[in-house]
Amino acid sequence: MNEEKIIQVENLTKKFGDFTAVKGITFDVYKGEIFGFLGANGAGKTTAMKMLIGISNPTSGKANVAGFDVLSQSEMVKKSIGYMSQKFSMYDDLTIKENITFFGGIYGLSRKQIKQKITQLVEELELQEVINNLVGSLPLGWKQKLSFSVALLHEPKIVFLDEPTGGVDPITRRQFWEMIYTQAYKGTTIFVTTHYMDEAEYCDRVSIMVDGAIEALDSPKKLKEQFQVDSMNDVFLKLARNIE
Amino acid sequence: MKTILFIIQKEFKQIFRDKSMLQLIFILPILQLLILSNAATFDVKNIAITFVDNNQSRESRELISAFDASTYFNVTESYFSENKAIEEMQKGKTDIIVNIPVNFNRNLQKDKKGSISVNINAIDAATAGVENVYVTQIVSAYNKNIQIQSKYISENKEVEQNIMVIPSFWYNNTLNYKTFMVPGILVLLVTMLTLFLSSMNIVREKELGTLEQINVTPIKKYQFIIGKLFPFWVLGLVILTVGLIISKVVFNVPMLGNILLVYGFTSIYLLLILGFGLFISNHTETQQQAMFIAWFFMVIFILMSGLFTPIESMPKWAQNITLLNPIRYFVEFIRMVLLKGSGFVEVLNNLLIVFGFAVVVNGLAVWSYKKTN
Amino acid sequence: MKRFIGFVKKEFYHIFRDKRSLFILFGMPIAQILLFGFAITNEINNVEIAIFDQSNDVETQKIINKIKSSPYFNVENQINKESDIEKEFKKGKIKAVLIFERDFSKNLQTKNVAVVQAITDATEPNVANTIANYTSAIIQNYQSQKKQPKTNLVKVEVQSRMFYNPELKSVFNFVPGVMTVILMLVSAMMTSISITREKEIGTMEILLVSPIKPFQVIIGKVFPYIFLSIINAIIILLLGFFVFKMPINGSLLLLSFESILFIISALSLGILISTISDSQQTAMMLSLMGLMLPVIILSGFIFPINSMPLPMQIISNIIPAKWFIIIVKAIMLKGVGIQYIWKETLILIGMTTLFITISIKKYKIRLE
Q1: In A64, B11, C146, C310, which residue has its Cα 20 to 30 A from A158's Cα atom?
Q2: Contact partners of C by the rule of 3+ C-beta pairs under 8 A?
Q3: Is residue A140 within a helix (H) or strand (E), and if so which, with residue range?
Q4: Range of the domain at B363
Q5: Least confident of B22-36, B252-266, C180-194
Q6: Domain containing residue A152: CATH number
Q7: The ABC transmembrane type-2 domain covers which part of the protein (chain B) (predicted)?
Q8: Tens of pLDDT, residues A12-25
């Protein structure tokens, strides 16, 4: 594995009034790895991620993403990353083609590049039939695959995925993870939050957040050894119990 | 620039996709301009008037028929008891009760002086004032008439000195209210449409979650804002054009001034309104909130614009508030240019004020739009 | 029922948690009623006029002084040539110019007639007409003061009495009007948008598959707004009474009943709008863009309905606000009871029933 650090986080903290959502977390993500960001709902995953993608300013601490500081160079960060939010966020009242054109356009792709991308995506995702359908009419699984592809349009160095497989069936989830693998193989760093513990097994390394702090960080294999259990689910349960 | 084009393209697509919305955007303003312009008149007419004729003489009947002959009044049934007539007023069936006393004709002949009492429903004070003037006018015409008829005229040969007031009404000599109201209502409609749509626009993306997706892209604030507002700017000018055509063709509103000046002014004015809408959008979390705030300001802008009630009659502090009202400047402007043919120099003041507001409001709007929080 | 109460509670929480909306809902109507109550009047005074005195003699000076002392006019400046009139009008500040003819006094003495021309900028017909009337009134007054009273003239005198509003306060007309505009728009707009919002973000479906019945969902959503609107109505009436000294001559109970009736009819109009719109934007177009000007112009709030052309008078009948304004004025100022306004009340009840019936029909079609 490549040892080049593409995300460096140091003591990153976010406070909302009296409430500290993220308590000084520190970790690194290496280039090309699939980094799992685990935690229960409300553990601070999404808040931490929003600081890394430059739409939320840290209260204190530092983070460097793709070589840029998230506080002072957030617009540069945005050029180097893709993001897929937990809430589906494409325009329901536009067609697939129009959505791709729009997002390609605001990432600065030329009309020609956009055309190429559309042809490529139609082929990869077998969109021939639906390319001119409104996005609102698609099933959720399709929408999520599409969101992922749109997040990759400008060929970012890192992709942030916030609960990408929430609410879809196991088969679609599998297909989705195949897409993630393909992309990681091409050298894109994947930063993914999830609360499905079986998905954690697919990651190169995972961190587990509890109450705003990172309580464990290693490869799934090592974590299972460390906690002397058989599955990531048990790791998580044990960890949660220890904290209490 | 290229990025802006992508946003504009997307916004237009969204507007044109929602057919029912598109219909409303055009039908509502056109329909309202056509209908409401006819209703907005202060020309007091068809006043329901009731007589209580306790005298029942030739003189009293002549007086009543003088009212009947006037175009202002509709004489409704006459009653013998004042109470009965007042009851009619309470029911809202009549607005004026004229009471002619029992000795009316006798007093007139003996004392050369008769008197009638006139009770006016004064809930609407301004209308009541006008009604009072009309009653007085008809009675004084009646007075002149009976003097000519009466024998006293012979004793009164000396010619009076008389100062004549000759009114002349410029720009609108028939005192046509439509000429006055149509351009004003058009201004209101253009303003409402663009303010409501723009104030709902960005907060809508906030609510649907797409704004977050936009915020993680490297797009520049100004690109996003220009791209979002441009379609509404075009829409405003299109509605203005349709409205001007209706004004000319249907209402025959004179257009003495330079139409290009109207477009130039509107272009800047729309920037002000759209910037304001954007500002509202930035400071609200839901479309409902945005709508309510836009509504609040719109009602104030409309009622304090000088379109329906004169600004000069307001107390000084309220007149000062109207100085911040964009509609005020637009209404003044469009009347000056269309009806009086004022030119660039005469409207420069309004133009500069609106331009200044536009700069300030858009500055605030861009500043308050935050990609990060 | 328990479930329903729980649901209503949830709706209340929604509204009351959002402090900003709450502030807006109560603060803005108060601000509006105060602003409009003090500021708006359709009386015409302080009109800026200019004078073109071609004769400049004792007589004209006397008349000009009289005009200057009137509250209706502010004499802005003197004009020295006829061509300046157009210039002044185009600038827009001066609304009228009074021209005294050459040799004014001399003409009056020798020919017994002298002429004042009142040239008005009639782009505002109401103002122009009123200026013309005021000017002749002032000059007539001047003449009659100058003349010896002639006892031998036959004359009918008019003794006017202003009913219901002896001091001719504009605010008596505007408080009912502003109250109506606020209640109408707030109720219709807030309900239509809050129901379509649930549709748009998809929570409506969740509510509909829950064991709560559809009409309970709607009533639950509307209920808090009935409550809020009633409080708004009370605040407005209190301000009218204490700040603007607006009398409540009729029964307070009847006034409350009619206000609640009107609020419910506005809310049911809001429900109707929400059944025919799919997005909040459409609901907004219908309830705000569609209702605002018609309610202001066709309700009798500003423009007297009797003076409108007949087709407009007929159209005004479909505006619920028109009937409520008649009712409020009748109860508060005329002090009448239900026997005088039962017709208007029935019309409001009829409209409400109609709105609700259509909503239920539309709703059923949607569910099938």
Answers
A1: B11
A2: B
A3: helix A140-151
A4: 2-40+176-368
A5: C180-194
A6: 3.40.50.300
A7: 135-372
A8: 999 988 888 999 99
Report if residue A98 sits inside a domain: yes
| pLDDT value at residue A207 | 92
Say whether C135 and B177 touch across the interface (CB within 8 A). no
Question: What is the predicted pLDDT for the residue at C368?
Answer: 47
Residue type, B320: N
pLDDT classification of C277: cutoffs 50, 70, 90? confident
Mean pLDDT throughout C288-299? 91
Q: Which residues of B touch A (CB under 8 A)?
A: 2-3, 5-7, 9-10, 13-14, 17-18, 208-210, 212-220, 223, 371-373
Contact: C118, B150; criterion CB under 8 Å? no
Overall number of domains in chain B: 2
Helix or strand or coil: residue C130?
helix
Does some domain include residue A145?
yes
Q: What is the DSSP letter of B151?
A: G
Same domain flag for B35 and B142: no
Q: What is the pLDDT of residues B39-57, one digit of tens each?
A: 888 888 888 999 998 888 8
CA separation for the pair B131, B89 (Å, rounded): 15
Contact C151 B112 (CB under 8 A): yes
Using CA atoms, how far residue A181 sits from A34, A86, A171, A186, A217, in Å, is 8, 19, 15, 9, 21
Statement: C47-146 belongs to CATH 3.40.50.740: no
Average pLDDT over residues A203-221: 89
Q: How many domains does chain A have?
A: 1
Q: What is the DSSP track for C162-181?
A: EES-TT--THHHHHHHHHHH
Structure tokens given for C324: 């409520």
Within-domain flag for A152: yes
Q: Which residue of B has its CA nearest to A86?
A: B209
What mean pLDDT is predicted for residues C16-43? 79
A98 close contact with B: CB closer than 8 A? yes
3-state secondary structure of A11: strand
Nearest CA in chain C to B94: C306
Identity of the residue numbered B271 = L
What string of DSSP letters covers C304-357?
Answer: -GGGS-HHHHHHHTT-HHHHHHHHHHIIIII---HHHHHHHHHHHHHHHHHHHH
Tell me the nearest-neighbour CA distance from B223 into chain C, angstroms: 24
Q: Which residue has the tokens 């607005």?
A: B95
What mean pLDDT value characterizes chain A?
88
SS3 B66: helix
A57 touches B: beta carbon within 8 Å: yes
Taking Cα atoms as reference points, which of B32, B295, B360 lies closest to residue C186?
B295
Give which of A63, A61, A118 is closest to A95, Cα–Cα: A118
Q: Tell me whether residue B166 is in a domain.
A: no
Comparing C-alpha atoms, which of A89, A97, A128, A131 is closest to residue B9?
A: A97
Residue B102, domain CATH: 3.40.1710.10
Strand partners, C274: none
Q: Which residue has the higher pLDDT, C70 or A2?
A: C70
Q: From residue B253, how far is each of B266, B337, C165 by CA, in Å?
A: 18, 12, 37
